[in-house]
Every structure is written in C-alpha cells, then in structure tokens.
C-alpha cells in the first residue's frame, strides 16, 4: 500500500484495513443526512497567551510540511487517499479551508465542553483558533489521527509556533514523511489463511460466547441522534498520586484498573442481571512499529487495534472480581493478534457496518466503552519556550462525537491529575443519569484507592 505517483505531484494509495474501519464507522450516520460522523475526533488546547494570527497560520503550514498526511484527501472513488504537492495558490487555498479563525464577537460565552457540538464536521483535518477563549481546537475525521497521534501533532504545532519556522518549500520531498499504514508495518503481504481464520474464530469465541448480552437500562428509546455532550471529572494531584501508587502496589495496569471501575458501574446499571457485559478495549501498538515510525515521525499515522471481551456479571459483582478478570485479559500480549490483525479489523468493520437508524432501534448499543490516553505529558508538554513565544497550556482534553447509545469513556493523566470524561448523545441519555454514572465511576476509584 505504498504511495504511487499517479501524475506529476500527485500520489495515491488504497485505504488500509484500519482506515477503512474508521471510514466505515464514521459513515453510520449518513442515513441522517446532517453530515455528522461517529467517532469524529475533537481536541481543544487552551493556552495562556494570544499569538499573532499570522504566526498561527504560518505554523499550520509548517506543520503540514512536517506531517503532510494531515493534508491528504479522499479520491473520487472513496477507496483511496491522495496527497498533492501544493502550488503556492493551492497551499493558500488549503490554509483558508482548514485554518479557521473565529472572531471574539462571534462567541459571547465559551463552553469548552460544547465547542465541538456547534461546529459542523469536516472531511478534512482542521484547526480552529478561538481568541475569545484562547483555544486551539483540533478537529478531524478519525481515519486521519488517533489519540496518541493527536497529542504528538499538537506538540509539533506548539513547538513550531513558539519558534516560527522560516518559509518552507513544498517540492515533493515531504512525501517521505507520510507514515506507512499499519497494515504495511504490522502485517505486510498478509494473506487470509485457514490458520488466520481459526485464530480469529478462537479470539471471538471467548468474547461472544456465554449468556445474553446485558445493556444499560437508562438509555432512552430515541433513534435519531442530536448533539454530543460531555461530562468530566478529575482527581487532585495528591489523590492521583495515591491512586497510581495503589495501582502499582496491587499489580494493576492503569487502563485495566480504571476500566474495572467503569465496568462495575456499568454492571450496576445493566440488565439482565445474569447477563454478560460485552465491551471493546483499545490498544496502542506504536511501540511495536519499526523505527522511526514508532516515535514522532509516525504522529500522523493511526496505529491502534482493539479486542472484544466480555464477562458474566454474576462473576463480577465487586471491584476486586472485575479487576482480576481485567488483569488476566491485559496480561495477554496484543502481539498474539498481529498474525491475523487485518482479518481481525475486517471482521470488526463488518460488525459495525450498520446504519445508525437501524442500530439505534432498541438498546443493543447501550454499553460503556473506554479509551485510555495514558500520560499526556509524555507527548504534549505543558510549556514551550521558543524564540518568539513562551506558550503554556492551561487546559487540554480529547473526545469523539457519538451517534449511537454508547457511553464513550476517555481517561488520562496530565500535569499529575487523573482525568475522566464521558461523551454521549443527548438524544439517548438524560444528563442527570450520565452525571450520576460518572460520579459513581469516580467514587469507586476513590473508595478503592484513596485512604
């Protein structure tokens, strides 16, 4: 799936299996014809100063030069992505289409929790500058970027902005910085074999066998989504230190420990009581990639996978029981799936390829999921000191648009504090029910690990 030159200055390749997955899941909302996308990624960065808008624009151009994949587009068939080396005029056009400045008078009262609800989604990776709240709002379809990649892209942008680059030249050499696909790096020349089919079947059998799948009982019967909303909580630095220390003392991994608390809350709010919780765990696989793509050079690639898992609720009625189930699950190396990963992702793609107006009938999608972003400070600094600006981050978060009945959990630590958030669609949930849910999630962690 290497880039192929199709005409002077134009390069194309087919979407790989992970990009196809995200393109497919984004399209489940096409039936509503409002342009919304499931899992559309949003991440605002609030800073403590107001750089000159021309410096912001120049940094955006320089970021494209460093990470040209953010400027790729979809070809006419919808099956391939394309990069075109820009002329000066084309570069200015791209800048006008993807860097949006919102005048201060346009937004009287800024609520960072709702910014991403009011702007329409776009087929392009865009950056919005909101001087009224001093926020850089990064917004993108998921096939362009994942959570860890977004942090590294934001880090690159702020580094460039603090010391504005000289004029950059787009001469085609930048295509060498477009990362290979996950298929190319993890499963080159993959072929579907009987062995791969059996491995996938064994993987799914563990997750899909057992009692009836339980669903969250508070989900509303609506079918058509409205706005995505966000509920969030955080622990103090002292509390976070106690929690993370206790995780290590119990031999628990961060993602599994926090997810165990989420699943306990979900079990309390799900039916039937003797059913099983079905959920998907996300795994970042960048550390398994070849150099240099396992570092910042691969920032604009998407490199993650997922595994379905389930457990009988009768076997997980308290935190300890669920955390033991999770520990066993996370102890299994994700590398065991590499031999059949493209087939694995293709299978997930077929499972989710259901229009939202069909999937939202009933409550089958009413489940709680979680994505762990880890330690944000490992990838995104709090302070950037450069020749032009000293830029400090005042706040940061990331989330995704939701078109079904899932409660999408996101967790991370930044500046020593543990953050938790849930994204949900207001058509399917009462705000008070979600606020209660996230309060219970936080309370379980506090009860278990803060003394």
Please tell me about this protein's structure.
- This protein is an alpha+beta fold and 451 residues long.
- The chain folds into two domains: 4-182, Chloramphenicol Acetyltransferase (2-Layer Sandwich), CATH 3.30.559; 192-449, Nonribosomal peptide synthetase, condensation domain (Chloramphenicol Acetyltransferase).
- It contains 13 helices and 19 strands.
- The protein has helices spanning 17-26, 53-66, 88-98, 115-118, 147-162, 182-186, 194-208, 237-249, 254-268, 319-331, 341-352, 356-359, 431-449; strands spanning 4-7, 10-14, 41-47, 73-74, 80-84, 99-101, 126-130, 135-140, 215-216, 228-234, 270-271, 276-284, 304-312, 368-375, 383-385, 390-396, 399-400, 407-414, 417-425.
- The strands form five sheets. Strands 3, 6, 7, 8, 15, 16 and 17 form a seven-stranded mixed β-sheet that branches.
- β15 (383-385) and β16 (390-396) form a beta hairpin.
- α1 packs parallel to α11 (341-352) and α9 (254-268) packs across α13 (431-449).
- It starts with a strand and ends with a helix.
């Amino acid at each position: 799936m290497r880039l192929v030159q199709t005409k002077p200055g134009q390069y194309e390749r087919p979407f790989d299996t992970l990009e196809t997955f995200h393109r497919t899941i984004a399209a489940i909302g096409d039936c509503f014809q409002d342009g919304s996308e499931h899992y559309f990624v949003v991440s605002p960065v609030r800073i403590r100063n107001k750089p000159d808008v021309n410096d912001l624009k120049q940094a955006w151009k320089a970021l494209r030069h460093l990470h040209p994949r953010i400027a790729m587009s979809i070809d006419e068939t919808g099956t391939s992505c394309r990069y075109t080396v820009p002329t000066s005029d084309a570069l200015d056009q791209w800048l006008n289409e993807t860097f949006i400045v919102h005048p201060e008078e346009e937004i009287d009262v800024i609520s960072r929790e709702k910014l991403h609800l009011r702007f329409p989604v776009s087929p392009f990776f865009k950056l919005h500058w909101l001087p009224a709240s001093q926020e850089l709002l990064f917004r993108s379809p998921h096939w362009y970027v994942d959570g860890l990649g977004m942090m590294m892209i934001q880090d690159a942008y702020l580094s460039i902005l603090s010391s504005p680059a000289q004029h950059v030249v787009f001469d085609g050499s930048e295509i060498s910085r477009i990362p290979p696909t996950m298929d190319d790096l993890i499963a080159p020349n993959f072929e579907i074999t009987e062995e791969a089919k059996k491995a996938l079947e064994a993987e799914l059998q563990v997750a899909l066998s057992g009692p009836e799948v339980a669903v969250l009982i508070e989900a509303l019967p609506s079918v058509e989504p409205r706005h995505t909303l966000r509920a969030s909580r955080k622990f103090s630095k002292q509390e976070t230190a106690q929690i993370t220390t206790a995780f290590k003392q119990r031999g628990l991994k961060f993602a599994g420990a926090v997810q165990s608390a989420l699943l306990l809350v979900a079990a309390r709010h799900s039916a039937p009581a003797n059913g099983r919780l079905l959920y998907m765990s996300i795994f970042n696989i960048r550390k398994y990639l070849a150099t240099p793509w396992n570092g910042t050079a691969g920032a604009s690639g998407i490199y993650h996978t997922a595994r379905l898992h389930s457990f009988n609720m009768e076997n997980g009625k308290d935190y300890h029981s669920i955390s033991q189930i999770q520990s066993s699950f996370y102890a299994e190396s994700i590398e065991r799936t590499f031999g059949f990963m493209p087939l694995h992702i293709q299978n997930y793609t077929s499972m989710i390829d259901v229009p939202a107006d069909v999937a939202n009938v009933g409550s089958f999608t009413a489940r709680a999921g979680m994505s762990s972003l880890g330690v944000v400070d490992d990838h995104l600094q709090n302070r950037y000191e450069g020749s032009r600006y000293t830029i400090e981050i005042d706040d940061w978060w990331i989330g995704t648009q939701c078109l079904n009945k899932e409660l999408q959990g996101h967790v991370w630590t930044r500046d020593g504090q543990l953050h938790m958030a849930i994204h949900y669609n207001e058509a399917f949930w009462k705000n008070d029910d979600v606020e209660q849910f996230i309060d219970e999630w936080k309370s379980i962690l506090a009860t278990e690990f803060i003394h």
